[in-house]
Design goal:
By secondary structure, the protein is an all-alpha fold. It folds into 3 domains: about 40 residues, no CATH class; about 55 residues; about 210 residues, MetI-like (MetI-like fold), CATH 1.10.3720. Helices cover about 65% and strands about 0% of the residues. It is built from 15 helices and no strands. Helix 4 crosses helix 7, helix 7 packs across helix 10 and helix 11 packs antiparallel against helix 12. The longest helix is centred in the last third of the chain and has 30 residues.
Length: about 375
């Protein structure tokens, strides 16, 4: 029997704490030498910039809707431009005395979106709610019913127009994208070729070109005396553009499904549409939830391009409100900050909702 020599193990440091605020800071901000240096540099820059920005935006800011008060030496941000022009920024060229109508219409639309994103309201009767709210929206905005004065669509603008274009284009683009994505994976050459041409053609041009074609070129091909409202043409253009990009996102999810699952579904006797509906699409859409939401956010922000066809949504209405008044024109940056906050609220809400949906659809994989 051989003798065994005892050797002591050197003492090791305690494992670093990875939970809580301290743990998150240690891992994400001071994980290694380069990260620590970048944290110190960026942190120092923020400590220098943030106090100056807060002094300009809050401490020395002018909140009075008087442009003379904003020109006094030492005054920071002139938020008086928002106080003076907020109705024109939010509602565009809509008649001033009738702006209660777009306010109610926008509130109904936002409420509808919140309901549609809440699990408790995911019922079949939501289709009826959508139809009712959209009918009320157009009735309030357009008028010419129930004693309301008629307001042409070319006078719609501001936040109501932004929400209308983004909501309807997103809702309409999703089923089109779903069909196109399935068509691109079809075994029928004619369908696959048509879907491929559509996607590549739309993705090969910028949205501003699509809007220009829909607004100015498309009417040239219509019969004489026949005209489609510019708002409808722009809405169709944005929808087709968003659907092309979304179709590629969904196709990526479809390609990620193992072929064995499709073969297993065929073995069980499921038809093509039953396989897609019960096996393939639920998994594919769950995989691409973040990308689909990114597409929605991009569509919401791309509505600012409709200004090229003389539809003044939120960004266009802000520019129009300040360019029409030379006294407030020097304070555009405050106006852009105002609409940037609005865009951030909507986009950040969609982003957080995407995270929630992703957790819900992946709950089984997390167990």
């Amino acid at each position: 029997m051989t003798a065994q020599t005892f050797q002591s193990i050197e003492a090791r440091n305690l494992p670093l704490k990875t939970e809580g605020v301290i743990g998150w800071i240690r891992i994400n901000l001071f994980g290694d030498l380069i990260t620590s240096i970048m944290t110190i540099v960026i942190g120092g820059a923020l400590l220098y910039v943030i106090p100056q920005f807060l002094g300009w935006a809050l401490v020395r800011a002018s909140w009075i809707p008087n442009f003379d008060a904003c020109r006094v030496d030492g005054v920071g941000a002139c938020w008086g431009v928002v106080s003076a022009k907020y109705r024109l920024i939010l509602f565009g060229r809509y008649p001033f005395e009738e702006q209660w109508r777009p306010l109610i219409a926008t509130s109904l639309m936002v409420g509808l979106l919140v309901m549609s994103c809440t699990r408790a309201f995911w019922r079949s009767w939501m289709v009826i709610v959508w139809a009712v709210v959209l009918s009320l929206f157009f009735a309030l905005m357009y008028g010419n019913v129930a004693g309301l004065s008629k307001v042409e669509t070319d006078r719609w603008g501001g936040l109501p127009l932004t929400i209308l274009l983004s909501t309807l284009s997103m809702v309409s683009a999703f089923p089109i994208a779903l069909v196109v994505a399935l068509g691109r994976r079809s075994n029928l050459p004619a369908i696959r070729t048509f879907c491929t041409i559509y996607v590549e053609l739309i993705r090969g041009v910028p949205l501003i070109s699509v809007l220009f074609m829909a607004s100015f070129m498309f009417p040239l091909f219509m019969p004489q005396g026949f005209s489609i409202d510019v708002l409808i043409r722009v809405l169709v253009g944005i929808t087709l553009f968003a659907a092309a990009y979304m179709a590629e996102i969904i196709r990526g999810g479809l390609q990620a499904i193992p072929k064995g699952q499709i073969e297993a579904a065929a073995t069980l006797g499921l038809s093509y549409w039953q396989t897609q509906r019960k096996v393939v699409l639920p998994q594919a859409l769950a995989m691409v939830v973040p990308s689909i939401m990114n597409s929605f956010i991009a569509t919401f922000m791309d509505t600012s391009l409709v200004t090229i066809v003389s539809l003044y949504e939120l960004t266009g209405a802000m520019s129009m409100a300040l360019n029409s008044d030379s006294n407030w024109r020097p304070f555009k940056i405050e106006g852009y900050f105002f609409i940037a906050i609005i865009y951030f609220i909507f986009c950040f809400s969609m982003s957080r909702y995407s995270i929630w949906v992703e957790k819900q659809v992946n709950r089984g994989a997390q167990r």
